[in-house]
Specification:
Layout lengths: L4 H26 L14 H8 L7 E3 L5 H7 L3 H8 L33 H15 L5 E6 L6 H12 L4 E7 L2 E2 L2 E2 H4 L4 H7 L4 E5 L3 H16 L5 E6 L19 H8 L2 H11 L5 H24 L17
Parallel strand pairs: 1-2, 2-3, 3-7, 6-7
Antiparallel strand pairs: 4-5
Helix pairs in contact: 1-2, 1-3, 1-11, 1-12, 2-3, 2-9, 4-12, 5-6
Length: 321
Amino acid sequence: MQLNRDELLRAYRDMCTIRQFEERVHAEFASGDIPGFVHLYAGEEASAVGVCAHLTKQDTIASTHRGHGHCIAKGCDVDAMMAEIYGRKTGLCAGKGGSMHIADVDVGMLGANGIVGGGAPLVCGAALTAKTLKTGAVAVAFGGDGASNQGTTAEAMNLASVWRLPVIFVLEDNGYAESTASAWSVAGDPLDRAKGFGMPGVRVDGHDFFAVHQAAGEAIARARAGEGPSLLHLKLARYFGHFEGDGMTYRSPDEVAKLRAERDCLKLFRAKVTEAGLLDGAALDAIEGEVAAVIEHAVRRAKAAPMPAPADLLSDVYVSY
């Protein structure tokens, strides 16, 4: 699928935004100003952006506890996201959700989810709505190798196939479910699981934006055409620990450094587009500078924003009819 100049620039901007957002949150969390837990997405940018580049506002996604990248790729406001992570009233969820529960249904982001495998059943509901109302929308469930072992995921894959729902299951296999290596905790080949539920599956290099974009485009087009669900098995890696403060003693000392040097999706993207003459380095440098200013602005606004008031505790709990 050929991308024009504007689409390439947008893809690089989105990946840079995710990377710089996560690296800044990493630094800010260390200062002690951010409450709660944080799980960072840095290293996996090509997955979220490659998939979400095909989606519109009417399409929906469900994320994981590692959801910042999905939120940004789907169009969530960066300022409001940062405020939410800081627990401020100006956050997307008024400071009540924090990092693991960012949501914005206005852009089709059904929410990050602290429940492993919790997103897969949710997107089946969204997909059933789209199919029933004939809107042409699709729904995407992001999950990791740990989520692939959950019963909720298996049940959702079965339901999506039985009802021929417009769902794409994106398995972001970063090699570890928390600290447990998928190499010995995930039995069999995930593509065999897709086959077992009667849906096509494809394995993709999750560090390669163009490979992800191509595979996602085919799966999403198939879903829009009424041909049912698909599974994308993306092999990629996260740069930070499972959570901030994770010592990562389960990884070899040079594993992350080698990944950053050899498999960084931003570096691979940059090399491909510049070598092919599609974009020049100056344009990409400019984007990086612009993104840095956006992230700095978001942090400053978040720190200056008010905290929720005690009276806000009971809002957004019950629906009044």
